[in-house]
């Protein structure tokens, strides 16, 4: 896709300064700009690059003042960073503006499909599935029986949504995601062997949830595993059966959450955090990366460590830990002095 400076300025409500007919078909960093690319200048430390960049178009703040000759065409806007982000969103919408049903696919006759859908080749849509309007299901996706998917959702290639799962509106489910696989439920019998406990619940994903590639969310043993509105999940996260994650919580990659743990609203959780099961995590909690959480956490706490404890206490303790060899040398010196006396 190619866009002229005039077209881009129209989208951003900006003003062209230079060649208004110049075309771009790709994006670049300002220091790596090449002919035919679009870039932006928002951070002052990158200002020197605007005089050497080969990018055809550069988005700048309207009050930018050039101190040298510039070869790139400028588009002046109120806020270059926000305008570039807006342009990325627009570009993504255009790029992903697919519609229609490709062949071959399998769509059960009992399914109910909304309007303006895209269903890619080799997708499977099972019995009694409901799909809302403007939703896109990419090739090789699997939608099991009795699944409900809302409006304006995107299910990328290779995602698997098991039976009875419910997905709200405006959700993004990336490749490799598995929703609704059996929870890790086993019970030892008299012979010491593990017998499987049937997992007959489901997974509920509320509106505006983003789920990163390779993340797995297990169905509940009974009831539902619930991901509340606005939650953002990174890649390769494991969420076990009967977990509940509160509104607008964000969780980074490789975090694991054991069964029946409840996480509150507006939490920020770093990468590789591990949660024990049956915990209650409050609202507005901050958990640093690689923490191991084995206790309940109250609202507004910031914690770190494994096992985790208060972030301020951890920081103070870590200073002493780093100085431990010096402390031990002093201790041994004092001990020798006492013994000699």
From TrEMBL:
One of its GO terms (cellular component) is membrane. The gene is lpxD. Signal peptide: none annotated. InterPro entries: Hexapep, LpxD, Trimer_LpxA-like_sf, UDP_GlcNAc_AcTrfase_non-rep. Keywords: Acyltransferase, Lipid A biosynthesis, Lipid biosynthesis, Lipid metabolism, Repeat, Transferase. The active site is at 241 (proton acceptor). Transmembrane segments: none annotated. One of its GO terms (biological process) is lipid A biosynthetic process. Belongs to the transferase hexapeptide repeat family. LpxD subfamily. Its EC number is 2.3.1.191. Pfam families: Hexapep, LpxD. Pathway: Bacterial outer membrane biogenesis; LPS lipid A biosynthesis. Homotrimer. Catalyzes the N-acylation of UDP-3-O-acylglucosamine using 3-hydroxyacyl-ACP as the acyl donor. Is involved in the biosynthesis of lipid A, a phosphorylated glycolipid that anchors the lipopolysaccharide to the outer membrane of the cell. GO terms for molecular function: N-acyltransferase activity; UDP-3-O-[(3R)-3-hydroxyacyl]-glucosamine N-acyltransferase activity. Residues 22-89 form the UDP-3-O-[3-hydroxymyristoyl] glucosamine N-acyltransferase non-repeat region domain. It catalyses: a UDP-3-O-[(3R)-3-hydroxyacyl]-alpha-D-glucosamine + a (3R)-hydroxyacyl-[ACP] = a UDP-2-N,3-O-bis[(3R)-3-hydroxyacyl]-alpha-D-glucosamine + holo-[ACP] + H(+). This is UDP-3-O-acylglucosamine N-acyltransferase. It is an enzyme of class 2 (transferase).
